[in-house]
Amino acid sequence: MKLTAIKQIADNKIVLTWHDGHISVFALNDLRNACPCASCKGEQVLLHHYAPMSQVDLPEKNNLKNISTVGAYAIQLFWGDGHDTGLYSFEYLRSLCECELCKSKIN
Q1: Residue 17, Cα to own-chain centre: how many angstroms?
Q2: 74, 98, 100, 102: which has the fewest Cβ within 10 Å?
């Protein structure tokens, strides 16, 4: 799974173009809510589950400041409130796509 392009449109969406030509459009607030980092989602270490940290909703929370690729497998999103620890793997991002084609593959 590879990305060929990342483009921010308007102030609230990004468009990802995949190597197979598929296009995924994501609302920034949806991506922020889906942040995969341990602080946002919690984590499992051996047999113990650590709950996610409580988060304060700051005004800049869903403002995207920067996007960086991480190797050939993920992107890192830098948010307006300073949060930047989530690495969104390409597989994870593709699984979040809610276009009609992707939703039909799930059902």
Answers
A1: 14
A2: 100
